[in-house]
Specification:
Layout lengths: L7 H13 L10 H11 L2 H8 L6 H8 L4 E3 L14 E3 L2 E3 L3 E3 L12 H12 L3 E3 L7 H8 L4 E5 L5 H13 L5 E4 L9 H6 L11 H4 L2 H6 L15 H13 L5 H7 L1 H12 L10 H7 L4 E6 L2 H9 L4 E5 L12 H12 L5 E4 L5 H9 L4 E4 L1 H32 L13 E3 L2
Parallel strand pairs: 4-11, 5-6, 6-7, 7-8, 8-9, 9-10, 10-11
Antiparallel strand pairs: 1-12, 2-3
Helix pairs in contact: 1-18, 2-18, 5-6, 5-18, 15-16, 17-18
Length: 425
């Protein structure tokens, strides 16, 4: 398999030469400009859902400020003329230690949603973690990606039969790992969404993995638990019903409306999508139903990392859900060193949360991460420039990382060690 190369000097040259010719990318390199431009192109509800966090959003701020507590100490005269940013991860050699995190409801920012991200990830040969709350079924995205690496994120439903079905589908469409999200068994207190009183799932958005699943289709015909709140009929609720019917798969608006299945799908989803009763012993069920590597996403405490390894998981993703679940939570970078110490190279440890530049990637790897994941940055690229926008965000991050690595005196990933950093107090 031929991997794409990320020649940093060529990326810079491309940007500067195009600029000389008066051609500037629509996708800003600067993080704040990228976010602001994307905000202007999104509806307020979409930006709140993507950019927002829990409570006062202090966890989002901590995810960023934690990186400033570490400083890189560059070393000189080490012949970094040729550099290698590639790593191996679960049977795939990838050109850089970077993955696309699962982000739900991408239809809010682009009509082709996950399909577009999948195509971009495939062209960069970087793994894409399919969201359980995707806008397109995993089979469609997998078909668009060819043999490029992809994983599947699992939200553990109240129905174990549905869990088994989703995992089986992930195996069949070529996913090479299952990522169990642990930190969203309850929906966090997301202030921006609450102020807008908006939840996209109530419009039937972000539930394509469910409506495309045969087990879920059968579950829709079962009576609900009677917990559905009565709805007030208003012009807004009628507009929401129209969106719900349009979002449901199939042709013929009237036919779908009369079937009642769009409404049944939303009710069933909201009833069973997450299971707060999960315990460590439930992992045995998942292992019985898949041979794929299992990673746990949302680990922040070293004792949980130790429990994960003792329960036979194959990897850990240090994550606080982008600051969207617990306000005032420990940041991902703060949690990383102790988790790495406990795991002791037994399984890969990835970091998700707060990555905004190449120096962030470098610091995470120096503290023991195998790779990092990004979410909001590529969503903003998707919003502004579609497939090319996603690719440019990835290319810019990797080019920045490659330059940081070389300018710090490291010519490959193995040379990025804790000694390359100092803690700044």
């Amino acid at each position: 398999m031929n991997l794409p190369k990320f020649p940093t000097t060529n990326r810079q040259k491309e940007i500067y030469l195009k600029g000389f010719a008066g051609i500037r990318s629509e996708v800003p390199v600067d993080w704040e400009m990228l976010e602001e431009k994307a905000r202007k192109q999104m509806i307020p509800e979409a930006f709140a859902y993507i950019a927002g966090g829990a409570g006062l959003e202090s966890t989002i701020a901590s995810n960023r400020s934690a990186f400033e507590k570490y400083k890189i100490v560059p070393r000189m005269l080490r012949n970094v003329s040729e550099r290698d940013t590639s790593i191996e991860l679960f049977g795939h050699k990838i050109p850089a230690p970077l993955l696309f995190s699962p982000v739900g409801v991408l239809e809010m920012v682009h009509p082709d949603a996950d399909l577009t991200v999948g195509r971009a990830a495939a062209k960069e040969r970087l793994p894409f973690i399919f969201s359980n709350q995707a806008s397109k079924p995993m089979e469609e995205v997998a078909a668009a990606m060819g043999d490029s690496p992809r994983w599947f994120q699992l939200y553990w439903s109240k129905s174990n039969e549905l869990v088994a079905s989703l995992v089986t589908r992930a195996e069949q469409c070529g996913c090479s790992a299952i990522v169990v999200t642990l930190d969203a068994t309850l929906l966090g207190w997301r202030t921006r969404d609450l102020d807008l009183a908006y939840l996209p799932f109530l419009e039937g958005k972000g539930i394509a993995q469910y409506t495309s699943d045969p087990v879920f289709q059968r579950l829709m015909d079962e009576p609900d638990n009677g917990s559905a709140a009565p709805r007030t009929v208003t012009l807004e609720s009628l507009a929401g019903l129209i969106k719900m019917v349009k979002a449901y798969p199939g042709n013929g608006f009237i036919k779908k409306l009369r079937s009642g299945r769009p409404v049944k799908a939303v009710r069933k989803f909201t009833d069973i999508y997450s299971n707060p009763a999960l315990t460590w012993k439930d992992l045995a069920f998942l292992r019985q139903h898949t041979k794929l590597p299992i990673l746990l996403k949302g680990i922040l405490h070293p004792e949980d990392a130790s429990l994960a390894v003792s329960h036979g998981v194959n990897g850990i993703i240090v994550s606080n859900h982008g600051g969207r679940q617990v306000d005032g939570s420990i940041s991902t970078l703060e949690a990383l060193p102790e988790i790495v110490k406990v795991v002791r190279t037994q399984v890969p440890v990835l970091l998700d949360g707060g990555i905004r530049g190449g120096a962030d990637m470098f610091k995470a790897l120096a503290l023991g991460a195998t790779a990092v994941c990004i979410g909001r940055p590529y969503v903003y690229g998707l919003t502004i420039g579609g497939e090319e926008g996603v690719r440019e965000v990835a290319q810019n991050l990797v080019a920045d990382f490659d330059l940081t690595m070389g300018l710090s005196g490291c010519k490959n990933i193995a040379e990025i060690k804790s000694e390359t950093l100092i803690r700044s107090y």
